[in-house]
Design brief:
Radius of gyration: 22 Å
Largest sheet: 4 strands, parallel
Structural class: alpha/beta
Shape: globular
Number of strands: 8
Strand order of the largest sheet: 2-1-5-8
Length: about 325
């Protein structure tokens, strides 16, 4: 399986780059996910020349938009941080990014925008300045912050998107032919369907044009990548997962007893009694046993390394 390249706030890997000279090591990132990805650690404050420890920063209002300011010495870092984000976005080409939550440079949500003259914050709905630059430049990039990755469902969704993005990048970086795109889409059909049936149909229509000359190659690539990434950005629901499990079960030649047993397990997942890993493993087991090529090669059943064990939460107990 391909190793994704993932941008990450350096402090989350244990580097002592925080404002107080410490770090915010995240053990899921370093110990669990780390063996399967190639990290691209970035600390925008350090790259902007601030050092550690350093004066704290905050976002402030201005007529031209949020400004990133040092709290005491009143140094305006906005242009420096904006240029750094633009430079990093142009050279990164990552498959995902994990930002430090709550940071005025790296936070991706809920950052206070302070009034220059004092008083309560104007609002608390902002992104950090560096993160905002990265996300605006790479809108299809899977991004999360370390705080939200404590949620089992959000964690699974993010990791799934990262590995899917890496597989798409691997395909498009090579000298692919129309048949390669068709094969890629075929393997990912059930995974896309579990996230967004509408974009599933749209992606299929785009792939149907792959062998013709009616659409320039770069337009075809952009259209498919957009549909693929937008689909996976929609969270898969238990109902759509059940739909996919039924689709794949319909491709199998099961006797009445095995079919009834599998349906019972799928219903238990739908009711929130067992995690998705249980019915998915059973369907894949039957597909492998029957050498049902289409079903057993679907990325829905192995969207990321199995050792990550990210599907072991139940829909009702997330």
């Amino acid at each position: 399986m391909i190793r994704p390249r993932v941008g990450v706030s350096s402090c989350l890997l244990g580097e002592p780059v925080r404002f107080n000279g410490g770090h915010s090591r995240d053990r899921f990132l370093t110990d669990v996910l780390g063996p399967y990805v190639d990290w691209v650690p970035i600390c925008p404050e350090m790259e902007a020349g601030l050092g550690a420890p350093r004066e704290t920063l905050r976002l402030e209002t201005s007529p031209t938009g949020p400004r990133l300011m040092t709290r005491t010495t009143r140094i305006d870092l906005t242009d420096r941080m904006t240029a750094l984000a633009r430079e990093r976005a142009a050279g990164l080409l990552p498959d995902g990014y994990v930002f430090k939550a709550g940071s005025p440079s790296c936070g991706i949500r809920g950052i206070p925008l302070h009034r220059t003259g004092g008083g309560p914050p104007a609002n608390r709905r902002n992104r950090g300045l560096f993160a905002d630059g990265i996300i605006n430049a790479l809108p299809l990039l899977p991004v999360e912050d370390d705080g939200r990755l404590n949620d089992a469902l959000l964690r699974e969704s993010f990791v799934e998107r990262v590995f899917a993005h890496a597989r798409l990048r691997e395909l498009l970086d090579a000298e692919w032919r129309p048949g390669d795109l068709v094969a890629f889409h075929t393997r990912h059909k059930m995974q896309i369907l579990a996230h967004d049936p509408g974009l599933y149909r749209q992606a299929g229509q785009i792939v149907a044009c792959a062998g013709s000359r009616t659409r320039p190659r770069h337009e075809l690539v952009d259209a498919y990548a957009g549909a693929f990434c937008r689909a996976l950005a929609r969270k898969a629901s238990p109902g759509r997962n059940v739909n996919v499990l039924h689709h794949c079960m319909g491709m199998l030649d099961l006797d009445p007893v095995r079919r009834a047993d599998l349906l019972k397990v799928i219903d238990s997942y739908k009711a929130g009694l067992v995690p998705l890993s249980v019915p998915a493993t059973l369907v894949r087991h039957h597909a492998n046993g029957q050498n049902a090529e289409y079903a057993r090669t679907q990325t829905f059943f192995a969207p990321y390394p199995e050792a990550l064990r990210l599907r072991n939460h139940t829909p009702a107990g997330r």
